[in-house]
């Protein structure tokens, strides 16, 4: 067997200095190398005659050398020229600064050349071609893989190294997928697939090889995640909360009737809480679907059962908003809530920490400050994290350690189609609130071009005259933070001075200190500001019920999921709300995307469309959560494979939960490697 952990340095053709270049690409071992997949292929296998070649195309020609190479000097550069020809025409091959070519060709010898054809003024040239003596296939005569390369490593060098590596492993890789599965899905074996993905004989061959490798990658990830969940359920004993204090009691205390969806997820949560297994649940619900009420009910049950609860929010202002809401509902029940954020006085903090440790605080609501080492609970039983994509798995772990396996509820407003949720959060159980409270007014959404600017401004004026407030979100600027700042400030000045001199305009951006940000947000909330110009920092759920207009500049630059999140900042009060998407460009995709936003307010529909219109790479880029990284799979394109894989993974674990059967040993090894990478240790 071959040692896949062998450092790349020792692969033929590498050596220490090339090893360093490979390391920069994240390639450290033989395994890394052979799983460094091509981004595309170039078909250099189909020859054309000089007559048939077209100007500007890259082509393979089969020619005879008609002269010696002639070198001419052009200032600092040299040019090498060779006369060539086939049965249809004569031509010239030219290179620059390649003096060594002078002795490379023999008159009358046949060569294959691949390069760009220049066919002007009745003269045919092939520019800087790669070539082989006829019959050899180092650079021509076959399909060439193109790798994603940056640093100073050339395609030719990496290809040569890859060839050596494949030679070394081919025939020696042990199969990872069970035999039955290969047969069932007609997948090629690992050795063939690995060779073919790098060096396909025919362009179509690589598809099948790719399918196999995608299948394997998704299966291992899914198994690892499911195993993690299974492991949690089985091995980790959590708290069994009292069956005496029913969430129902709390539900009846709300000034509104909970939606059926809220009630359903609460049943799921209550079942988890009462069972001795540790709850690890993701609660998904669109903005405004009422996740806070759900969190409150869970916290109520935890406290009534004699435990403390921690509620974590991504920003101080959100934490404060939660505190306000919690106190409204829970103080009268004798439940004591407290806020812990950074920046409070040392004295105050010490007092809080002491009360927390003595159990005088029942529910601690806060930001990252809650994670700090000196924060100790008396008996933490429930942890709720809001807007979870801002908290990594590690932070989740850290807060968990502050109790004896407390139950965990992760809340997210980023709707994800279920198939994806299974792979993204395979380690969590999932509850979905798929219904908004009744009588929510649909946020009227309009997509407008720059021509409508004045009408939009008039519309904002009218609403402000009626006592409302508006958000204006700045364009996403790509070149970096500094430009973003400039664009926020410039836009704010323009609006304040030229368009809305009579109103109070303020701005908000990510580079401001958290305290400044909170200050501005608070002023807006208290209606001391009419128009808030902002970057996407307002994405997170702060409630300003009086604001009813959301204007998004250059909306075409945002992902749909993000537009939806931004839009969710309005429509939180009794007023009819509006979202105005200003966009530029008339590409079909842009128009389709704007139409999706105008047509629906349903976050799940939007996220599916977003996937469809953008592909998963972009989609996840904007979601910024700690996804497993895929080397070859693309969750969007490979959705069909993912669905098959999910069925198989569940079936395998149903039959052999511990992966102990002999035929699953290889799976087990790879799955354990995955788990190690996820940072959770082997099973
Ligand atoms: P999110 O899921 O975005 O966190 P919130 O929990 O902030 O949503 O709820 C949004 C608003 O809806 C809040 O003002 C909340 O009081 C209200 N709300 C929640 N559930 C209901 C319901 N069942 N009926 C009416 N209003 C509700
Ligand atoms: Mg919320």
How is this fold's topology laid out?
Elements: H1 15-24, H2 30-34, E1 40-43, E2 47-48, E3 58-65, E4 70-74, E5 77-85, E6 90-96, E7 110-120, E8 123-133, E9 143-146, H3 155-169, H4 179-184, H5 190-198, H6 205-235, H7 247-251, H8 260-274, E10 280-285, H9 291-304, E11 308-312, H10 316-330, E12 337-340, H11 346-357, E13 363-366, E14 380-385, H12 393-400, E15 407-412, H13 418-424, E16 429-433, E17 444-448, H14 453-465, E18 469-473, H15 481-499, E19 505-508, H16 514-525, E20 531-534, E21 547-552, H17 560-567, E22 578-582, H18 588-599, H19 603-614, H20 616-623, H21 639-655, H22 665-677
Parallel strand pairs: 2-3, 6-8, 10-15, 10-16, 11-13, 11-14, 12-13, 14-15, 17-22, 18-20, 18-21, 19-20, 21-22
Antiparallel strand pairs: 1-9, 3-5, 3-7, 4-5, 5-6, 7-8
Helix pairs in contact: 3-5, 5-6, 6-21, 6-22, 8-9, 18-19, 19-20
């Amino acid at each position: 067997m071959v040692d896949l952990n062998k450092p790349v340095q020792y692969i033929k053709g590498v050596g220490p200095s090339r090893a360093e270049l490979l390391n920069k690409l994240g390639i450290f071992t033989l395994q890394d190398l052979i799983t460094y997949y091509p981004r595309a292929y170039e078909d250099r296998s189909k020859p054309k005659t000089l007559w048939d070649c077209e100007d500007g195309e890259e082509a393979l020609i089969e020619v005879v050398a008609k002269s010696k190479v002639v070198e001419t000097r052009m200032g600092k550069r040299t040019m090498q020229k060779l006369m060539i020809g086939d049965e249809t025409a004569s031509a010239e091959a030219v290179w620059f600064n390649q003096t060594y070519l002078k002795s490379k060709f023999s008159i009358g010898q046949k060569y294959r050349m691949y390069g760009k054809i220049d066919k002007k003024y009745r003269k045919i040239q092939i520019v800087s071609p790669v070539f082989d003596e006829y019959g050899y296939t180092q650079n021509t005569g076959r399909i060439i893989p193109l790798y994603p390369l940056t640093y100073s490593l050339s395609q030719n060098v990496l290809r040569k190294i890859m060839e050596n590596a494949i030679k070394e492993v081919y025939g020696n890789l042990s199969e990872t997928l069970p035999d039955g599965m290969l047969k069932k899905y007609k997948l090629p074996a690992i050795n063939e697939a690995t060779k073919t993905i790098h060096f396909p004989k025919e362009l179509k061959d690589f598809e099948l090889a790719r399918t196999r490798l995608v299948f394997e990658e998704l299966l291992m990830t899914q198994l690892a995640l499911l195993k993690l969940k299974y492991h949690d359920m089985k091995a980790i004993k959590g708290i069994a909360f009292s069956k005496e204090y029913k969430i129902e009691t709390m539900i009846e205390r709300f000034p509104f009737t909970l939606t059926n969806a809220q009630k359903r997820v609460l049943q799921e949560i209550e079942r988890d809480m009462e069972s001795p297994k540790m709850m690890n649940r993701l609660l998904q619900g669109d903005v405004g679907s009422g996740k806070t009420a759900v969190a409150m009910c869970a916290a109520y049950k935890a406290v009534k059962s004699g435990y403390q609860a921690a509620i974590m929010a991504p920003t101080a202002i959100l934490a404060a908003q939660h505190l306000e809401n919690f106190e409204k509902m829970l103080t009268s029940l004798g439940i004591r809530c407290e806020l812990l954020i950074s920046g409070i006085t040392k004295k105050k903090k010490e007092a809080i920490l002491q009360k927390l440790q003595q159990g005088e605080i029942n529910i601690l609501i806060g930001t990252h400050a809650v994670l700090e080492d000196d924060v100790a609970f008396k008996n933490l039983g429930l942890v709720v994290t809001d807007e979870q994509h801002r908290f990594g798995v590690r932070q989740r772990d850290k807060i968990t350690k502050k109790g004896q396996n407390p139950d965990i509820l992760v809340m997210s407003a980023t709707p994800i189609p279920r198939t994806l949720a299974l792979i993204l959060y395979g380690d969590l159980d999932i509850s979905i609130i798929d219904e908004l409270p009744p009588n929510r007014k649909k946020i009227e959404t309009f997509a407008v071009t720059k021509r409508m600017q004045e009408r939009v401004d008039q519309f904002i004026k009218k609403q402000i005259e009626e006592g409302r407030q508006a958000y204006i979100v700045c364009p996403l600027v790509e070149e970096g933070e500094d430009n973003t700042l400039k664009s926020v400030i410039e836009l704010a000045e323009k609006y304040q001075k030229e368009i809305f001199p009579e109103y109070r305009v303020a701005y908000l951006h990510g580079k401001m200190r958290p305290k400044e940000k909170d200050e501005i947000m608070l002023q807006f909330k208290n209606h001391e500001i009419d128009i808030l110009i902002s970057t996407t920092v307002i994405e997170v759920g702060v409630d300003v019920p009086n604001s009813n207009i959301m204007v998004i500049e250059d909306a075409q630059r945002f992902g749909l999921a993000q537009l939806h999140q931004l839009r969710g900042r309005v429509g939180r009060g009794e007023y009819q709300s509006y979202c105005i998407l200003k966009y530029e460009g008339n590409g079909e995709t842009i128009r389709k995307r704007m139409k999706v936003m105008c047509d629906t307010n349903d976050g799940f529909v939007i996220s599916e469309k977003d996937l469809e219109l953008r592909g998963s790479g972009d989609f996840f880029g904007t979601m910024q959560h700690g996804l497993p990284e895929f080397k070859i799979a693309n969750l969007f394109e490979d959705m069909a494979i993912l669905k098959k894989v999910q069925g198989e993974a569940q079936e395998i674990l149903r039959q052999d939960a511990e992966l102990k059967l002999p035929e699953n040993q290889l799976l087990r090894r790879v799955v354990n490697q995955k788990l190690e990478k996820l940072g959770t240790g082997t099973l």
